[in-house]
């Protein structure tokens, strides 16, 4: 017993001395005072980006936060974001991998969690040249539009059912279905849901894997940041291994299905899995890399789309003026004798600005994913030591009163007054990141979010449930890497076009 106390005391003394050494050696950003061993872990509120923004108000736009013995730096302004993502992009392009992300990615054998280097450059090149070309996106447009129309048809059936007259719908359930079916068809060439909305066995397994992965990834435990305490969490290690094995089994089964189809000449060669199989030999991609890239596309493209559209619809319902203005534009450009499609976007600037304004206020990944310093750099006159974790608080950047007029107001017109790029060139608006780690599927994400909003607004009028005022919608967020509305959005949908325009014609 005495030996253990001596050992723990020695470790605490060592960690305290190490932190003091870093503080004396480096000019670290200010921040809340850390506790021995745990740092600031127990001071961090569940919705981390809000907590960090509050600390930014108290300590400044760049702060130090201690995750156990691991130093993290959080920046919250566009100027500092530019330093991180452009001026020092190369030194800060590595990824900090927690224990769960390291297990899920097999230590970076994918795109999202790979460190910057020859491997990352290679797999990003595969994504850029084989998956996300303009030609590929256009070839898969019918699938995206088909799934959005499936959502519209489902909403129409439910809101016109006499038993549901005047009742509200759970908007998230429809958005989740289209996001699931769209991403599985684009990536895997499969639709796990039949015409009646019933998910098959493989689809249930797929959804279970995605849900379980999100749950495991959202955790924040001491063992991740104080390595010598990992023994306290043996069950987590077992859970990670089980999840990875389950995920690999499903991915390998789907890959084998596609290999057989390609062998017999029946593969479409448009879906991502087919494109990757055709590129596997050319780029010397291992099976682990193939599986990692497939899950990258799925996890990055599914939740983020549904999240973005739900937040946008909540803001639109809260602001009837915006809904009316968007519908006037859609009626003028598209009319009432057909439905909107992606080729209309160029003539629908206000609709595009609605999507942009929603992602300014509610970026789907508010803290982006953690960067890691590969060498010592200076940001905002402060030292960022090698191996330091670096976060860009995109949520705070999008609400910075120094660069945004009335930052908390949902006002799409601001982008008519000044065009602000959201594809990584303007550091005031970063829903998809910027620099070397910008999301390669940015254009796909923009197209799908805009398409879903266009159909929802063109084909329905949306109101709050009876007895609820628009300003009573709960706009609080859930904890996690991807931020859902804490209370799923409920709304009443009323069709506004001829009934024959709600029929899906399956592709």
Give a written overview of the molecule:
With 507 residues, the chain is an alpha+beta fold. 51% of the residues lie in helices and 7% in strands. The protein has a domain at 118-363 and 398-502: Orthogonal Bundle (Cytochrome p450), CATH 1.10.630. The strands form three sheets. A five-stranded mixed beta sheet has the order 1-2-8-5-3. It has a three-stranded antiparallel beta sheet with strand order 4-10-9. A two-stranded antiparallel sheet has the order 6-7. The longest helix is centred in the middle third of the chain and has 30 residues, at 234-263.
Concise account of the structure shown:
Belongs to the cytochrome P450 family. The radius of gyration is 24 Å and the shape is globular.
Which features would summarize this protein structure in a list?
single chain; 507 residues; alpha+beta; Cytochrome p450; 5-stranded mixed beta sheet; 3-stranded antiparallel beta sheet; 19 helices; 10 strands; 51% helix; membrane; Cyt_P450_CS
CATH class of the domain at 118-363 and 398-502: Mainly Alpha
Chain-averaged pLDDT: 89
End-to-end separation: 69 Å
Query: How much of the residues is beta strand, in percent?
Result: 5-15%
Number-wise, the strands total 10
Q: Helix count, per DSSP?
A: 19
Q: What are the secondary-structure elements, in order, as H or E?
A: HHEEHEHHHHEHHHHHHHHHEEEEHHHEE
Question: Judging from the principal axes of the Cα atoms, what is the shape?
Answer: globular
CATH superfamily of the domain at 118-363 and 398-502: Cytochrome P450
Q: What is the CATH architecture annotation of the domain at 118-363 and 398-502?
A: Orthogonal Bundle
Q: Strand order within the widest sheet?
A: 1-2-8-5-3
For the biggest sheet, the summary is: 5 strands, mixed
Would you tell me the structural class of the helices and strands?
alpha+beta
Family: Belongs to the cytochrome P450 family.
Membrane topology: Single-pass membrane protein
GO molecular function, one term: heme binding
Binding site for heme: 439
């Amino acid at each position: 017993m005495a030996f253990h106390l001596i050992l723990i005391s020695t470790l605490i003394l060592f960690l305290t001395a190490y932190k003091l050494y870093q503080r004396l050696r480096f000019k670290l950003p200010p921040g809340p005072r850390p506790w021995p061993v745990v740092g600031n872990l127990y001071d961090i509120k569940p919705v981390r980006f809000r907590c960090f923004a509050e600390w930014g108000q108290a300590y400044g736009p760049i702060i130090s936060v201690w995750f156990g013995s691991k130093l993290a730096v959080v920046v919250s302004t566009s100027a500092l974001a530019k330093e991180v993502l452009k001026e020092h992009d190369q030194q800060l392009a590595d990824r900090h991998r927690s224990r769960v992300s390291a297990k899920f990615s097999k230590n970076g054998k994918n795109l999202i969690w790979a460190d910057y280097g020859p491997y990352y450059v290679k797999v990003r090149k595969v994504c850029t040249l084989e998956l996300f070309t303009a030609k590929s996106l256009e070839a898969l447009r019918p699938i995206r539009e088909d799934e959005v129309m499936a959502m519209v048809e489902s909403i129409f059936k439910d809101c016109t059912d006499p038993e549901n007259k005047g009742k509200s719908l759970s908007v998230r359930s429809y958005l989740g279905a289209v996001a699931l079916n769209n991403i599985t068809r684009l990536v895997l060439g499969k639709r796990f849901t039949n015409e009646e909305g019933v998910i098959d066995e493989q689809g249930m397994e797929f959804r279970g894997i995605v849900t379980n992965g999100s749950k495991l990834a959202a955790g924040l435990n001491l063992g991740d940041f104080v390595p010598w305490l990992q023994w306290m969490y043996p069950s987590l290690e077992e859970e990670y291994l089980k999840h990875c094995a389950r995920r690999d089994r499903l991915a390998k089964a789907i890959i084998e299905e596609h290999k057989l189809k390609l062998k017999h000449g029946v593969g479409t060669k448009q879906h991502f899995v087919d494109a990757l199989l055709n590129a596997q030999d050319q780029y010397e991609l291992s099976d682990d890399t193939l599986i990692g890239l497939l899950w990258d596309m799925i996890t990055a493209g599914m939740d983020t789309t549904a999240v973005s559209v739900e937040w946008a619809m909540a803001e639109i319902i809260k602001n009837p003026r915006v809904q009316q203005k968007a519908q006037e534009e859609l009626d003028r450009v598209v009319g009432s004798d057909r439905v909107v499609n992606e080729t209309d976007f160029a003539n629908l600037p206000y609709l595009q600005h609605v999507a942009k304004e929603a992602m300014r206020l509610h970026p789907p990944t508010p803290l982006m994913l953690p960067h890691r310093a590969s060498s010592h750099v200076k940001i905002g006159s402060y030292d960022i030591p090698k191996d330091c974790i670096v976060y860009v608080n995109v949520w705070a950047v999008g609400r910075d009163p120094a660069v945004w007029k009335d930052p908390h107001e949902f006002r799409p017109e601001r982008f008519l007054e000044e065009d602000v790029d959201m594809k990584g060139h303007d550091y005031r608006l970063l829903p998809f990141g910027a620099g070397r780690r910008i999301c390669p599927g940015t254009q796909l994400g923009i197209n799908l979010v805009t398409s879903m909003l266009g159909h929802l607004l063109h084909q329905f009028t949306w109101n709050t449930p009876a007895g609820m005022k628009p300003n009573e919608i709960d706009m609080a967020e859930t904890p996690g890497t991807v931020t859902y509305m804490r209370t799923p959005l409920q709304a009443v949908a009323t069709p506004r076009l001829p009934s024959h325009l709600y029929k899906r014609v399956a592709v």
